[in-house]
Amino acid sequence: MSGQGVSLSRDPWVRRAVLVIVAGILVRLALSPFLTYDLEIYHWGVVMENIQSGNGLYGLAGYYYTPVWGYLLAALSGFQDAFLSIGTFGIRFTDLLGIEDLVCRYHTATAVTIGFVMALKVPLILTDAAVGVLSFFFVRSISGDGRKAFFASVLWIFFPVAVYMSGVQVQFDSVSALLMLLTVFLVMRGHSLLGGAVFSAAVLLKFYPAVCLPVLVAYLFVRYRSDGRFGGELSKAVVGAGASAAVLLLPQILGGDLSDAFSFITGRVSDGDALMTITSFLSMAAMLAGFVVCGYRMYRCGEDPEKALVVNCLLALSFATVFSFVPQYILVAVPFLCVAATCFDGRYMTCWWMVGIGNLFAAVAINNFSLFASSSEFLGMASPEWVVSAMEAMESLTVAGFTSVEILDAAGCVFGALGIILILVIGLEDVIPSERLRGRIGNLWRWECGQE
To answer: What SS3 class is residue 65?
Structure first.
């Protein structure tokens, strides 16, 4: 670590970061038994049962992602069988059947047990904690400032969407965030082989990190071109990435279902409705723009390649997720947003608030009272009839043919997308043609962030 004159055990910022991360864990644990999105965790239970039955990830319908998350579910399933006595993962209740007839069809009358809920949420909560720890050491490594490192950890561990996705919705995008941040950390530290291996795993978990490939290659070129080591370091990264991909995809290659591992992408484009198809093509166009623009900016960077690497990874991932309109997808970029806000430009805090609040609002709006389905059946927090009637009431309010759920969800997603657009505008500010316009925009955001 650069600029470290105090041991970890005596550094007050380390102790403060540990306390904050523990507080973040406790907040998530406090939410976990009582609030759970029904459909997501139900699908994870189905996948785990399919694996236990000997059908693998793709032998039966139910798993539509690349295999890495499936391997993690298989590991969790094995751990549960060996050390826990959870029994069935859920029970189908007739008094919840009404939620399957709603306009918003992403619900199920199968309520998962509280034991199964905690068995899946705790590993994701610990993943959030790992991202918080890595964020601390990442920032202290590039800045030598414990205070900045502490605040980067705070921004991650209490990022609203991160809290919600691990403590409530049971989505695994924090794993993507961990792998992508670890990739950049390893590459910065000169571990190209390991960096390539972790990057390959990140891409095969969810494809959004792939947009950072030109940025990482350009960074290696910028860093090692003067001493002639670029070819060697790039070769190490390629070997690491190839070996990792071969290991992770080998079961699908041997089983002849490699194409199923990529059905998440092709299915979204070919099987979705018109709006989903449009947003999918917009997302692909934006990803292509990020692929080219951010790679070129990294290649042309000046005196601070580490800063350029962080910022261009943030921009590339923002390009990739700006048109997704799915609350959790931006999580892969959030660690870089936290680093940029604490180390490089306080104006990114405006984006942190907008992305966090907007996407949290969207997630809560679309899930609404279904969050109480499991706790109503197993903890008696509310009656299942109340859950169903409350969800029906939410959809009974319509404007121009759209339910209040759809309107609130869209409003949150749009507000979050505006926050991502602000990330892009701040990061690409140097290409704004008018110096006067740049000054006005910059001064406005400095006022919003409380800066002089």
So the answer is: coil
